[in-house]
Design a protein that fits this description.
Number of helices of chain A: 0
Structural class of chain A: mainly beta
Helix content of chain B: under 10%
Order of helices and strands of chain B: EEEEEEEEEEE
Number of strands of chain A: 11
Helix content of chain A: under 10%
Strand content of chain B: over 45%
Distance between the termini of chain A: 37 Å
Structural class of chain B: mainly beta
Largest sheet of chain A: 7 strands, mixed
Oligomer: heterodimer
Radius of gyration of chain B: 14 Å
Number of strands of chain B: 11
Order of helices and strands of chain A: EEEEEEEEEEE
Shape of chain A: globular
Largest interface: A-B, 27 and 28 residues
Largest sheet of chain B: 7 strands, mixed
Shape of chain B: globular
Number of helices of chain B: 0
């Protein structure tokens, strides 16, 4: 079952903050975040592991609540380059990722 | 290091024809994945190779899809015969060898092959 992402879309002004949420009904080993720009490959941003370890990227950070099987991605002081579609991918078992429906982010000047 | 590459970037075929997509993973990556994104929907897992072995093919839609990874290097995904609902973007991703249990499984994606079946 795919994780649920919210919101589906968000519009920001440059410098503003935003939070993207990802919820799963399964017990997870890890949560992965990707950003995809139109016509390009999804680019890896973050991985959050069961147990609390995480790796960040620039001014993007994330959290993983293991009890709730929820992850949040924080876009801080957003830049124009942050525009794109953000996907969370959850890993329950077997290394394969199950992706959410995506969140479209548009950062305006 | 070179990234994941996929060929072709676009393919337009008619219903009933055959198409073969190719993926070259990052050198040394044992894990290779195929995903598909149908327009407007989420990216869906198709299958996972560890070297040349199929680890998980639970996402393959039906027996019209055949994936191979001879020698554990590049992989091909053949659709025969293609149907209208097969249209979408097919992504390949690769990652380093997994450690026992679960892994820090950063998957590197290729640019995708956009398949249109008319």
């Amino acid at each position: 079952q795919q994780p649920v992402q919210s919101p589906q879309a968000v519009i920001l002004r440059e410098g503003e903050d935003a939070v993207i949420n990802c919820s799963s009904s399964k017990a997870l080993y890890s949560v992965h975040w990707y950003r995809q720009k139109h016509g390009e490959a999804p680019v890896f941003l973050m991985i959050l592991l069961k147990g609390g370890e995480q790796k960040g990227h620039e001014k993007i950070s994330a959290s993983f609540n293991e009890k709730k099987q929820q992850s949040s991605l924080y876009l801080t002081a957003s830049q124009l380059s942050y525009s794109g579609t953000y996907f969370c991918g959850t890993e329950a078992a077997g290394n394969k990722l199950t992706f959410g429906g995506g969140t479209r982010v548009l950062v305006k000047p | 290091e070179a990234g994941v590459t996929q060929f072709p970037s676009h393919s337009v075929i008619e219903k009933g024809q055959t198409v073969t997509l190719r993926c070259d993973p990052i050198s040394g990556h044992d894990n290779l994945y195929w995903y598909r994104r149908v327009m407007g929907k989420e990216i869906k897992f198709l299958l996972h190779f560890v070297k040349e072995s199929k680890q998980d093919e639970s996402g393959m839609p039906n027996n019209r899809f055949l994936a191979e990874r001879t020698g554990g290097t590049y992989s091909t995904l053949k659709v025969q015969p293609a149907e209208l609902e097969d249209s979408g973007v097919y992504f390949c991703a690769s990652s380093r060898r997994s450690s026992p249990g679960f892994s820090y499984n950063e998957q590197f994606f290729g640019p995708g092959t956009r398949l249109t079946v008319l």
